[in-house]
Write a structure and sequence with these properties.
The protein is an alpha+beta fold. The protein has two domains: about 110 residues, Response regulator (Rossmann fold, 3-Layer(aba) Sandwich), CATH 3.40.50.2300; about 220 residues, no CATH class. About 25% of the residues lie in helices and about 30% in strands. It has eight helices and 20 strands. The strands form four sheets. It has an eight-stranded antiparallel beta sheet with strand order 14-13-10-6-5-18-19-20, with helices on one face. Helix 3 runs parallel beside helix 4. The longest helix has 16 residues. About 45% of the residues are buried. Bound molecules: fe (iii) ion. Fe (iii) ion binds next to loops.
């Protein structure tokens, strides 16, 4: 087999496409840049064929400048109409390029094509492999989340922040998708929404051991974020972390970088909060362990276009918090880092 496709990888991707209900007569498109994840591309193309589906690849030149973290939402596909059209024609797109937050992604999924983003190293795909039970628990959680009007996060460390809800939809991520037009990220295991515009106020206290996903590191010092009307207005702390966050946000020279972004919680018991201390592939990790681990409260800053908002800032920080409590309209969902409702528990 070409491009180092192992039997193990082929088998795992076939199981993944089976969860996505890829079936005979369907067409799966794999989107790639240059030779990045060429092994994944070949394995998905073959796995789809083995399930009786058609498969083809759309490959664009690998321009690293367009794929960096500072270019979220801007993709090299934007000016390539024939490629977008080809992807819309497929029943399912495996996105190995990273279309998240882009107009192209919205256009493709709005056409009814389901889409699966894959970016983690193989050992993480295996470790966090999705299950139907995870999906069920994430969907149970979404049912509660959809009707809630107030989300409140607290912690012993001093976090106390309220999100008015109802303006934006709830988004689920459980690691596969069998639903037309639905996007997911393999692997994952969490859900989120946005607070209403101007409807987020309070304090978030980041503690040592909480992760800054974009930096691929854990905080080692306490950081206090003040949030007023949906924007971070103060960043305080004695250690390096407050400076890192503060200088990183200001480097974008964009007031919209300070907006509060999605809020939710993690439900994947296979994900580990401490994964960054035991991996040798940090430069390839996409933080899905950090975002998904069971009982984390996922706070974030930056864009809200993913759920239909207008803030398309390129600056996005995911800040999964440990040991927090979260309520929806007063109902306890997460209690000091552990999940409470029976139908969401592992
Ligand atoms: Fe995020």
């Amino acid at each position: 087999m070409s491009a180092n496709v192992s039997a193990e990888m082929l088998h795992l991707f076939q199981e993944e496409l089976r969860l996505c209900k890829v079936s005979p007569g369907e067409t799966v498109a794999v989107l790639t840049a240059g030779t990045v994840r060429a092994d994944y591309a070949q394995a998905f193309l073959l796995a789809a064929r083995h399930l009786g589906a058609n498969s083809f690849q759309v490959n664009i030149p690998n321009d690293l400048g367009m794929l960096s973290a500072a270019s979220i939402g801007k993709t090299p596909l934007a000016n390539c109409r024939p490629a977008i059209n080809a992807l819309k024609e497929a029943d399912m797109v495996i996105d190995l390029l990273g279309l998240l937050f882009s107009q192209e992604q919205l256009e493709i999924t709005n056409s009814g094509t389901r889409m699966l983003y894959v970016a983690e190293p193989f050992h993480v795909l295996k470790q966090m492999f999705p299950t139907e039970s995870l999906r069920k628990r994430v969907e149970n959680a979404a049912e509660r989340f959809k009707t809630a009007r107030l989300l409140h996060v607290t912690s012993k460390a001093g976090t106390d922040i309220r999100y008015q809800l109802g303006q934006y939809p709830v988004m689920t991520e459980y690691g596969y998708t069998d639903t037309p037009g639905r996007w997911d990220h393999f692997p994952s295991g969490f859900l989120f929404t946005h607070g209403n515009d101007d409807g987020v106020d309070g304090t978030v206290v980041l503690m040592p051991g909480d992760a800054i996903a974009a930096f691929r590191r854990y905080l080692t010092s306490r950081v206090v974020l003040t949030v007023e009307k949906g924007h971070v207005t103060k960043i305080e702390g004695d250690g390096m972390d407050a400076d890192l966050i503060s200088d990183y946000l200001s480097s974008f020279d964009d007031p919209r970088a300070y907006a509060v972004s999605h809020i939710g919680w993690g439900l994947n018991e296979r994900a580990k909060w401490f994964h960054m201390v035991e991996t040798r592939e940090l430069n390839r990790e996409r933080a899905m362990n950090s975002l998904s681990f069971y009982g984390n409260v996922l706070f974030s800053t930056g864009p809200n276009t993913e759920l239909g908002g207008t803030n398309d800032t390129a600056c996005h920080l995911d800040l999964p918090l440990r040991n927090c409590s979260l309520t929806l309209d007063g109902e306890l969902i997460v209690e000091r880092g552990t999940i409470v409702p029976a139908d969401m528990r592992k």
